[in-house]
Amino acid sequence: MPDEPPQLYSRRDPEGRRVPLVASLPHSGLYVPPAIGRLLTLEHRAWLRNTDWFLPDVYSFLPWLGVTMLEATHSRYVADLNRDPGGVLYGDFSRAVIARTTDHGTLIYSDPDAPQDFAGRITAYHAPYHAALRETLEELIRTFGRALLLDLHSFMGPISNDACIGDRHGAACTPETVDRLESALRDQGFDVVRNTPFAGGYIVRTYGKPPRCEALQLEIRYTTYLDCSRIDQPGRPTVDPARIAAVQTRLRPALEQVIAAFLNR
Fold first, then answer.
1. CATH of region 8-264
2. Please, what is the average pLDDT of the chain?
3. How far is C-alpha 242 from the chain's CA centre?
4. I want to staple 166 with a disulfide (CB 3.0 to 4.6 A). Which of 42, 150, 183, 199 is the partner?
């Protein structure tokens, strides 16, 4: 599809340094192909509610630490990369690769029952991201013997904590790694919970196979880096460089601790 941007953007340290960590940002993309966009309601097309707003900006320091960062350019409403392609194809927001409604139950499509090539979206959009993610992890494992995947997201509710770490209740990551991340975030003043309500989705479940590959889902609340006074009103939020810079001064040292501990084990 020549009119579309690349479906995946990869960032690495410009000085060439690499550590055995991958950061995945599957829900930060905003691009919707015109053929799909025409099928959306006008409100949803202009809003794309439940996007992980501006996380590439929040975590822009990661490549400078040697972390390979994979960002989805396309919206989660084109194909949700954190859903199982072998499961529900079209339906519930929390389970389906292509959501019928938002998390708040609002219809996404002008005609939600009109036939569409949903299976084709898996081939065109879901599969390439996971092929790149799998290849990157395998390369790091060959080079370093093991790898850590950080699946990065943001949220507004249903909890009021600053951050939630998901490790599939201990199945996707070693205790040493998750303990270090929780401790490092708490040291920076984040109010942290584990696995409730976000235990880790398809990405963490698929790739988290310790000890060779550990995986964690990290969710940070919109309020840590966004003005949320109008977050529930139609329309996209505005990036706030000052708020993002402030949260980076807390996230960077926390993740530097995690990287150092992982490298030294």
1. 3.40.630.40
2. 96
3. 22
4. 199
Alpha-carbon distances, residue 217 vs 5, 44, 67, 191, 243 (angstroms):
26, 26, 16, 16, 22
- What's at 130, amino acid-wise? H
- Separation CA 5–CA 236 (nearest Å): 20
Q: Within 10 Å of residue 11's Cβ, how many Cβ atoms? A: 18
- Return the number of other C-beta atoms located less than 10 Å from residue 74's C-beta: 25
Q: Strand pairing partners for 69?
A: 11, 23
User: Residue 89 and residue 202: Cα distance in Å, rounded?
Assistant: 14
**pLDDT tens per residue, range 161-197:** 999 999 999 999 999 999 999 999 999 999 999 999 9
Place of tokens 């060959």: 142
Q: Domain coordinates of the chain in residue numbers?
A: 8-264
Q: Shortest CA distance to 208 belongs to which of 182, 169, 179, 180?
A: 169
Residue linked to tokens 């949220």: 155
CA–CA separation, 74 vs 211, rounded Å? 32
**The two structure tokens encoding residue 7:** 């479906």
pTM of model > 0.85: yes
pLDDT in tens, 19-43: 999 999 999 999 999 999 999 999 9
